[in-house]
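Might you be able to consider the sequence and fold that I enclose below?
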Amino acid sequence: MSYRECIAKGVPEGQTKSSYLLNFTGCKMFSVPQSSKSEFLDKARQAREERKGYKEKEKAATQIQALVRKFLCRCRLQKQIRKEVDDYFQASEAGTTKRNALSLFRTARKLLFIYCLEDKIRFEKLCRTILASMEVENEPKVWYVSLALSKDLTIPWLKQIKDVLWICCQLLKNLKPDILQDSKLVTLYLTMLVTFTDTSTWRIVRGKGEALRPALTRICENIMGHLNQKGFYSILQILLTNGLARSKPSLSKGTLTAVFSLSLRPVIAAHFSDNLLRSFLLHIMSVPGIVSHFTVLTPECMTLIQTHDLLRKFILFLSREEQCLDICVCLEGSHTLCLLGNLIHLGFLKEKVLEEEANHFVKDLTDMLSYCQRYVSQKKSNLTHWHPVLGWFSQTVDYGLNESMPLVTKQLQHLWGVSVIRTLFSDVLSKKLESQESTPPPPQPSTSQNNLPVKNLFKRAFQKSASVRNILKPVGGKRVDSAEVQKVCSICVLYQTALSTLTQIRLQILTGLTHLDDLLPKLWAFICELGPQGGLKLFMECLNNDTEESKQLLAMLMLFCDCSRHLITILDDIEVYEEQTSFKIEELITISSFLNTFVFKMIWDGILENAKGEKLELFHSVHGWLMVLYERDCRRRFTPDDHWLRKDLKPSLLFQELEKGKKRAQLLLQYIPHVIPHKNRVLLFRNIVTKEKESLGLVETSSASPHVTHITIRRSRMLEDGYDQLRRLPVNSIKGVIRVKFVNDLGVDEAGIDQDGVFKEFLEEIIKKVFNPALNLFKTTSGNERLYPSPTSYIHENHLQLFEFVGKMLGKAVYEGIVVDVPFASFFLSQVLGHHHSTFYSSIDELPSLDSEFYKNLTSIKRYDGDVGDLGLTLSYDEDVMGQLVCHELIPGGKTMPVTNENKISYIHLMAHFRMHTQIKEQTAAFIRGFRSIINPEWLHMFSTPEVQRLISGDNAEIDLDDLKKHTVYYGGFHSSHRVIIWLWDILSSDFNAEERAMFLKFVTSCSRPPLLGFAYLKPPFSIRCVEVSDDQSPS
């Protein structure tokens, strides 16, 4: 009782308090400890949880028992049903029971109720039984399809057949047509699908049942709609890919026909709706090479495609940009390429449709290629995958398609085949290049002996070409916004997109586009007619505009340049200069002038500095075509004098801008140095060398003198002493001042002071010795006797060190401006300059500079009309090496590989490459290593191969005595009017012939050729000193 309660009941207050306190105290005194209480509570909680656990276990046990009983019951039921189904099939096969569509329906319902993977054989029997029922004659009650007409069973039957057909589809997905047993099942399940998606084979609609056809057709359409919703087209795609995406197809003619019929039925039923056309394109037309397989295996399918005008429907469907993009996004790169190949193949086969729908067809292909192009990468990365046609590709690549890529590539090749090109470029190819009467060629102003071959070439070329057609020059007059121009531009954009997307077959595309001899000349004629004035002005305006029209015009120019460059690269000199394949010489002159100006304007007007993307690609394309023409002209002239120079470019202005570091001047020197006169480039080269000398402290100044290296040379062992003393010198010492002291065989010094003259003599003599073919470091070419490394130089123990030393000595001569009479073979100089690494380089073009007779023999193989195999050649080269026949394989195993009509072009290039590169690879590398240690290779980029030869050997021209007089220095009382000096010049000009004057020059300067820039650049200058001698002394 609480204290308050006691008060309320009238208990005395004192007693109440004491009782309360006593009770409270007693409670505290006799209570249970706190830990015991916690234990008690824990035990109570555990007891509750145990009771709860027991109840849950009991409940779970009950559920498990129920599930087990349910499972066992289901197993018994399934076993019973399977037995009933088996009994039905057994009785049906034995013929002991009367066949009946209703009993078949009930059996099918039982099997579908319990169906799982272990029932595949029973399902197979069901399908066979259903198909057998459809073949019975004149027994409607047996026909399985007759249940569709039963009022009570129509809906159940429809559901059942949908289920059956979908199981057929699922089974098809996992079958491999190349396995015989699977192939039989493929045929079975496809027959089921073919039978119940079209009424044409149903006996029930024959005769009086024809009135039922519309209703039954709607049932078939309902079935097809159900299958489509479930993924019918995906199943067909998997089946087709498994059977066709391989080097040898494993689908039979009947199977392929059935699949195509099944895929086309929903499209026809839906009256070619966009939705069904989309599914057909995504899943059927994207199967690799399917049109090729139709053409070979099932011509009936091609007939269906033509009957329903499918190509036109595909083209028009894809012509809507959003639908084309949707298809590409769904397919991704590899399958988009397969679809592209099939469409191109259809276009090739259906030329009339292609001609009528050319604009849409071109747009579709361009859009699809452009989509793929987004993911084409120039190099390998963590995000890219290798694709055999696209190269490095940043989308996922389906490697399962790799086996079928050769077939897809073959389909794509139709795009640049003659038939499709003629159809697409019909507007260009229909242009007639009008003929004109031959007129005398314009006179050539040059009378130099060296220019006579060029003059004769012009004459022959003009006589041949002028009688055939007008020379194509820019004339203008065609509106760029006309339908004709827009069509041609869009076609050029298509092929340009193909070139930049299909990176691994780029050369195939270019070769295909250049196959027709008249395409490129007529495309150039078309370009010449564009705009008010034609030619350059229009395209320069396009560079400054960012409109779609301008981009298309520039794409046309880019395609023309890429194709023309490829053509000229693969044509040999006979085809270019004598046969004049595709282009006439005069047209090449006009084109090169156009290209030269275009590139110059792009650089000088500052367009290139900020160019990127398409404009930068355009520049490289135009520049590439230009440089191919320029290099061929350097090798064999076809242009008039000063053709490549820009008269509006002042060299002084260019040099000023170079000094200031102006970007456009640097780019000009990098890309088209040939627009600057040769003399000015040599001056620039000498200035560059002088600046380097100053930076290295190799020039005499008021405050310091350069370090001088002294060497002593025995005349009888000039090469050995020079090699021993100079080869270990640091590069900067070789670049510096070297003083030579000659001693005779007795060790006595020769008289004379070396003020560079003695060193020049040493350098010229040592170079003369090492380049002597008798030493076998270098050989001479047949005919013009030009030098190149000897393939058998290895007879010298240290031949590679010698080549490096020779390279340094020649580099020293060029560095000092000392001309030496060393005529190199142009193919070897091209390697020294690094031209052989260029994408435009062709070994076969350089071969005449090695062996013109060998070149003629090789090119005769190219022109051989018969079977090259009859010549008994192999991909190898037999060489007589010091009396022993050695066989060199051009490729591994080449001596067992015959040369055929298919590989003869490869053989020619391999042979040329072997003779000019492989045989002398080590010697050339050592020589280049030595030469480039003295001469920076970038300094020589401004010179062509013949110009570098002039830099080395000087001009092969007579000595200009007036120039020598003008720059002669006199000492000791002599002057230009002194009678002795007058006698000297009179004797040199009147009594000496050219050879004697060269000998005089060698005597006084140690060089038989004048300096390239004239005697003003002779160092030290030519000087004549008056020396008094006594009567008993003879002057020296």
